[in-house]
Specification:
The structure holds two protein chains of two kinds.
Chain A (H helix, E strand, L loop, with lengths): L4 H20 L5 H6 L7 H11 L10 H7 L12
Chain B lengths: L13 E6 L8 H16 L5 E4 L7 E6 L17 E3 L10 E4 L4 E2 L5 E2 H12 L28 H11 L25 E5 L2 E6 L2 E5 L6 E5 H4 L9 E5 L4 E6 L2 E6 L2 E2 L5 E2 L14 E5 L4 E6 L2 E6 L4 E2 L5 E2 H4 L9 E5 L2 E6 L2 E6 L4 E7 L7
Helix pairs in contact in B: 1-2
Classes of the chains: A mainly alpha, B alpha+beta.
Chain lengths: 82, 368
Amino acid sequence: FPVAPETEDEDKNIQLVKTYLQNFYKLETDKQSRFKSKNIKPLTEKLKEMQVFFGLKVTGKPDVDTLEVMKKPRCGVPDIGQ
Amino acid sequence: YVLTDGNPKWERKNLTYRIVNYTPDMNSADVDKAIQKAFKVWSDVSPLIFKIIYDGNADIMISFETGDHRDNSPFDGPDGFLVHAFQPRNGIGGDVHFDEAEYWTKGSNGYNLFLVVAHELGHSLGLSHSTDPGALMYPTYSYTEPNEFRLPQDDINGIQTVYGHSGNPIQPTGPTTPVTCDHKLTFDAVATMRGELLFFKDRYFWRKHPQMTEVQLNFISLFWPNLPSGIQAAYENTERDQIFLFKENKYWVLSGYDLVYNHPKSIYDLGFPKNVKRINAAFNDENSGKTYFFVGGKYWRYDENRQSMDQGYPKKIIDEFRGISKNIDAAFQYGRYIYFFIGTRQFQFDPNVKRVVSVMKSNSWFNC
């Protein structure tokens, strides 16, 4: 079946969120997390870190305001750690 | 502000920089100027001195790169992330790489090179991203007219924590970001816009929908890059779906997010005498189609239908709006009331009984 647009959007958003958090909040990529220590902060925790940083409502979910910030052009230097 | 993990800093105060290559988007003299102006932003508030060199290795190498440029941080094409810089250290430390896939300019279109360089140099000097939305070191890009740019106080505090003050006998200060629920908050201008309320202050405005709890703080330039900061008066003509914004003896007309005219108009076209240099506040009375302009202790009344000032004005504010003294900051009409803002207080005036019926905090609309 053709992917329903909202599901397609959802997949795109999830990918956007993961890439953003990997780039700017040190979310481990799937490859990395397989080998790294146990203290992997799941995506939700990293998402909350980003929401705190930008003064957004801390939901741990990719809500509209959070996605809007993630789509804004920005500096490539990470927000947490270097 | 946030200092970079490990507090890296340059041990020398004299640093060199080199522009390794140029973007074809701008002429090279404008690139030189933008970068020089960006270094001055930081040298004005710190003991650092920057000198350009034209070959060999400089402390801060500035270049335009595309995609994967062998520093383990490939660029991502247009938009997304625009640029990155490395913290103070030898070798690649301090260097700034711009994504050539972006469109670099000296104006408000594309990405303004001066603003982005100034931000990146903060990283080159040891600053990380700030959580203050008004700070230069905030991660997301926002346009400010370069000639109006002043380094925010948050960034000054950051760089002076790392390197100390400049030798300047007068310590430069910078703008601070207004806090939505600051009980001392005052406004420059307030207007309705298509059912929402716009509260203007410095280079910001809050956007509030009366039925919603959230209030959004934005840069004016985010919506209207060609508007100045420091708007002094504003009102909406709902019939014409236009907002009029005033600063000094000029005004701009908005229709939604668009500027109706590319250039500001003169308030004297509305019929003000030449001795009026600025307007303190304005509101439009939807019922009568009259717009009230407040200047000092007086007010004028303008007929939007005839597009001219009514005769017999100015009159004293106190004569028509009992309880409202002079030097009003802002005013707007909402429902049957007129709201006047004077400093941290807001006066709800009922024109039917011609008196103030309630006094509130200026930011009472923000549900603090």
